[in-house]
Amino acid sequence: MILTLIAIAVMAIGIVMLLVYNITDHYAMNVIGTIVLAVGITAVLICTIVLIICNDNDLGKKELANEIREWNESLAHYRKMQINKWVNWFYPADTSELEYIPVWKLK
């Protein structure tokens, strides 16, 4: 994440240098700005590839499993409260179309 922000900052510097070239017609700013922009774009592509590779190694799987567990618990609670005649008017009846997410899909 931090590397991506640094790469975007490098791209921004390159864009600013190219804008300065357009204002001042200074040839060095054009060359340096183009190089800096190319380095920034390359860095963003490398960061994207690294994120894809890291995602293949199950990064974020624990957070996803926690969110699925929370969803299933919340859905079970709503369905349980809909059956309870004392409090069912507080819970909407539209959860019948919602389904539990099987956790085995994460393995």
Describe the overall structure:
By secondary structure, the chain is mostly helical. It has 2 domains: 2-56; 61-106, no CATH class. Helix content is 71%, strand content 0%. It is built from 3 helices and no strands. The chain has helices spanning 2-24, 27-56, 61-83. α1 (2-24) runs antiparallel to α2. The mean pLDDT is 74.
Mean of the pLDDT scores? 74
If helices are DSSP runs of H or I spanning 4 or more residues, what is the number of helices? 3
Residue share in helix: over 70%
Structural class: mainly alpha
- Radius of gyration, in angstroms, nearest whole number: 26 Å
* Shape type: elongated
Give the termini distance in whole angstroms: 26 Å
Strand content: under 5%
Poorly predicted runs of 5 or more residues: none
| Strand elements, count | 0
Number of domains: 2
Largest sheet: none
* H/E element sequence: HHH
